[in-house]
Amino acid sequence: MRKHPSTSGERASVKESMKLKIALPKIPDIELVALEGLERLARYMGIREDKIGEARILVTEAIINGLEHSGQKHPTVRVEFSMTKKELVILVRDYGKGFEPGAVEEPDIKKKVGSKNKRGWGLKVMKSMSDDFQIESGKRGTKITIKKLLS
Amino acid sequence: MDQPFALTSDLKDNCLVIATSGYVNNVGGEAIAKEFTRHFEKGTKKIVINLAKSKVVNSIGMSFLIEIIEQLEDAGGKLVFTDLDPAVEKMLAIMGLFKYAGKEPTVEDALRVLTSRK
Questions:
Q1: Does residue A12 sit at the B interface (CB-CB below 8 Å)?
Q2: Can you tell me whether residue B54 is helix, strand or coil?
Q3: Residue A5 placed within a domain
Q4: Residue A83 in domain
Q5: Which of A28, A32, A61 is opposite residue B59, by nearest beta carbon?
Q6: Of A53, A108, A112, the CB nearest to B55
Q7: Domains in chain B and their CATH numbers?
Q8: What does the pLDDT read at residue A16?
Q9: Is A22 in the B-facing interface, judged by CB distances under 8 Å?
Q10: What global pTM score does this model have?
């Protein structure tokens, strides 16, 4: 019989895949709820601390992007993690008005210093820190899919 | 779950040392910028930001630090980050903040660098 993970520091097998799905409304710091789940999964899977740190930032930026830019009065994002010892796939979907990702200007620190708008770094951070980054956006919302290698 | 944001500040060798704990989001970033401004207006132009106890940050919170860099650039001052989590350090590098700010392993190292500047 397969032993289920319970407590007492059991670790996942190499082939094991874990999924976590969660829906988050826009309330302050709600992204921390997703991070709690991510960290528990990652520790169970035995993922290195440096990789957990980068995954934390990717998840945070993807959720904030969905909640900030959906354009809805009461936005909700759906977050899904799919994790093996080798990789993490993060899927974040909002149901807002969408946007044209290609029209978003890449931020440059030299331009930001001295300009009024110092924000707008989320997409650049996600693209740069991930191993694969896909964004699909349309009138029915935006879906971000991020792959992060963990070993 | 990460603890709520808090900061402490201290003046050492004419340098402002801000140490944060918890999640540096927009509220945390703004609080750091306000604390900096309070001291900057009194003439402090050398600043250390110790992020040892902030393992979770977001880019909105970090964008407030660009305001600090901006004011220091105009005044000939300097910002140094210390005790960075590797992922946070990577994020700051992606944003290009190290083109304007320094990074050192500890507050003591940062103070040594800043006090040796004219």
A1: no
A2: coil
A3: no
A4: yes
A5: A61
A6: A53
A7: 6-102 (3.30.750.24)
A8: 87
A9: no
A10: 0.91
Q: Is residue A9 part of a domain?
A: no
C-alpha distance from residue B6 to each of A34, A113, B17, B27, B31 (Å): 21, 26, 14, 10, 9
In DSSP notation, A84-114 reads: -SSEEEEEEEE-S----GGGSPPP-HHHHTT
Owning domain of residue A66: 18-149
Shortest Cα distance, chain B CAs vs residue A87, angstroms: 17
Q: How many domains does chain A have?
A: 1
Q: Rounded to whole angstroms, how far apart are CA atoms A82 and A52?
A: 14
Distance from CA of B40 to the nearest CA of A (A): 17
Q: How far is A1 from chain B (nearest CA, A)?
A: 34
Q: What is the pLDDT along chain B (118 residues), one digit of tens a residue?
A: 557 899 999 999 999 999 999 999 999 999 999 999 999 999 999 999 999 999 999 999 999 999 999 999 999 999 999 999 999 999 999 999 999 999 999 999 999 999 997 6
Query: What does the buried/exposed string (b/e) look like for B67-98 if buried means 16 or more CB atoms within 10 Å of the residue's CB?
Result: bbbbbbeeeebbbbbbbbbebbbbbbebbbbe
Question: Residue B48: beta bridge partners?
Answer: B17, B80
- Tell me the CATH number at A81: 3.30.565.10
Per DSSP, B98 falls in state G
Let me know if residue A8 belongs to a domain: no
Nearest to B7 by CA among A8, B67, B17: B17
